[in-house]
Amino acid sequence: MRGTRSGQDNLYHDGPVPAADKAAVTGDSGLTSPGTAKSLTDLSGYVPSANSPVIAAGIDIANDGGRDAAGTALLSGMPDLGGLQRSAGPGRDEAVPTATTTFGNGQSASPAALTDGSDYTSWANPSTGVTYPGTITLTFPSRRTVSEVVLATHFGQGQGITKADVQTWDGSSWVTRAADAQITWTGNTATVERRSLRLPSAVATTGVRLVVKAANHTWGNLSVNEITTR
Length: 230
Fold this sequence. Notes:
- The chain is mainly β.
- It has two domains: 94 residues, no CATH class; 132 residues, Jelly Rolls.
- The protein is 2% helix and 33% strand.
- The termini are far apart.
């Protein structure tokens, strides 16, 4: 039987990028000292350097074991892409955040697609009747430190969010950390783009909320593929 192989969110260095990988990362991997390992327990040369394109380019995956290939604890939110992490995190082996929205669901999508660990699945609101502002909320399984919120979107010029407030939960109320953040999308194809909404300073919280104030509406709806944090 002939098998089928597919990949997503991979790094491609000096080689063709498969058309099917719409969230590909390209460039020099920027490893610390590749080719120097003498055994499976000596992998330090394959840790990404500080300027590597794989830093914080991974996906928040549910119940991932909380450790990399060398046993380093993973960061909460977006880890480094690949088998080894540059920096250690809390290493929590837990579910992904729960996503909810006031916009409703359209095109057979649900908010669960926003945190399912895939840049390919997407959520969209109904194609008619959208009003602003509306909210998209992520509730974390445990407290995490957030310095930026990252949106992944395809066809961004046609359906991407273009303005939003970023809020965090302080235990009793929502606090606006970044107001009227502007988001610009350069493409309008199936290729996934990521945009970061940076907080003025890192905040420990159990939830983040986007108060969406504007979006592109070529087809009447707004859409997001994935929302996570760094």
